[in-house]
Structure formats: C-alpha cells, structure tokens
Design goal:
about 220 residues, alpha/beta, seven-stranded mixed beta sheet, 8 helices
Amino acid sequence: MEPEAGTPLGLELLNLRRSEYGEYARVQLLDLMDRPLGSVLDIGCARGAGATAMRDRGATHLVGLEIDSEYAEAARQRYDEVVTGSAEGDLPWGPASFDTVLCYDVLEHTYDPWSILRQLQTLLKPEGRLHVSLPNSRNVDFWRPLVLRGTVGYEPSGLRDVTHIRFFTRRDLAAMVNGAGFDILRADWTGELSRKRRLAVAATAGHAVELFAYQWVVLARPR
C-alpha cells in the first residue's frame, strides 16, 4: 500500500523535530538525584542546557559526550569539557574518573546499550552513581496504534521516536543495569496521569503505573 499523501517517509520525520529539542535541561530527572553530584559525565549532553541545574546541585566538574558536533560546540560554552563522539565508541576517560554518570534518553538510540553500561561502570568511582532514563515501551500510548490501527506510528520524538533502536520496559532496564555490574538503589517514573489513569493506578495498588509511565529512571551504584 502507498503511504498517505504528505506523510513523511523514514528519517524525514526528523525535519519535524522541535527546535528546542537540544535545550532540555532535564531538571525533573536531576531532582531525583541526591546532592552533591561531584564530577559529572553527561552522556548525550546536547547543547549543555542542564549545566546550571547541575552546578546548582553540587556538580564540581562537568564533562559531556555528544554525537552531534553542532550541539557539542554549543555545550562547550557551558561545560568544562565536551567530547564529540558516540557512547558506543571507546571513551577517552580512565577508570574511576567520575562521581556521577548521567545517561538520559540515550541508550534507546544505540545498538548495544548493554556494552555501553558495562563501559560506564568502569568510569565511576566505587561510591559513584549512574542515573539512566529510558522511554517505557509498556506504555499504552506506545502500543495502542499497533493494536488498534496496525501501525507503529513513528513520530519525530517521544515514545515512538523514529530514531529509537532498542525498546525497554521497567524489567528490561533493571535487568540491563544489573547485568552491567550495578546495584539498583531506586527506580522512579515520569509522566502526567489523567484522572482516569490515576484512578486505575489507585485501584491496582500502583501496578497500573507500568502502563502509564512515560519514562523509567534508575539510580544505581557500581557493584
């Protein structure tokens, strides 16, 4: 069947991505971290919009890794050091270099996130912390188009971002983090719930949140 007239094909969807995409400060996620952050490695730092928020939370040295060279150049105005490159490559820092590693909405864009986390584990100090977030593939808004309309319904961003390669539920994320040599300290979720969804969560003693969480966010420490 031919696509509907005017429907973007493949990565043409990225042309619809909002211009502020690289300026998210991730304050909501940072608020889930204990302070101080100490020395920070921010995987996928984009334009470095979170620099002020991280320094306010006790970041003493900010290092970013960003695959987009234009974004990386912008981040250099805000961070102490920014390396242009992919998390799937060899990382240029030695063992036990950081107190905190942030990996926000990055791993779903990579082919081998399991190996990335194993590499990041070596970069953390013994009492260091990994904070990682991923979109929730069990979210009803993720699979509803597939069930009801027979299409994945790719979008420029969000749960069905056309650049996503890997897909995770809460259990998948926990298994990956544990398998990479971390102990999980806590797991949180993000997202706004409608009144009906809040009632469903309450009626199921919280279990229904698995279907409504937008992201899962895990805080972990090297084992």
